[in-house]
Design goal:
By secondary structure, the protein is of the alpha/beta class. The protein has a single domain (10-61, 71-181), classed as Rossmann fold. The chain is built from five helices and seven strands; from the N terminus they run βαββαβαββαβα. Strands 1, 2, 3, 4, 5, 6 and 7 form a seven-stranded parallel sheet that branches. β4 (117-123), α3 and β5 (142-146) form a beta-alpha-beta unit. α3 runs parallel beside α4. The longest helix has 17 residues, at 30-46. One of its GO terms (molecular function) is hydrolase activity.
Length: 184
Amino acid sequence: MPITTIDPNTALIVVDLQSAATEMPTVHPFDAVLANAVKLADAFRAKQLPVVLVNVAGGAPGRTEHDFGASDLPDGWTDLLPELNRQPGDKTVTKYTWGAFHNTDLAEHLQELGVTQVVVCGLSTAIGVESTARQAHEHGFHVALPIDAMTDLDAAAHENSATLIFPRLGETGTTAEVLARIGA
């Protein structure tokens, strides 16, 4: 289903495109996903729409079979990829859980800017992107998800999010559709 509408006050949220991401065995070519995220960020900035760059610096404290804590992270892990071309007006959010809204000021920041919709992309589809999209939806934001600007480490997880979960949270489509809707 295509992305049909982008509100005039829409923000882009780019999730976890940081230094360690380039080494991960993603199911879609990482360079293409990054290129689409960069196109979106550049276009949003050109239209003076908010850009939020999110990195992850640890995991939630609950016990899991795949423990992930801040002490396990290599040096430079949280560094945003230089291709994103972080600008002074961009909002940077460091998260310690899967979603970018939990225990951060992201919702308040977006509300202060009058944002009514978010476009969410990045890594990984079924974890950081999906959790952020769910939280955005729960905060009352319209959600758009350009599937070609995200990837996962697991093909089945990506497909599940893209085809079963995301249509319940918002509209799915392509980077080109988002760019067309914002007039880029």
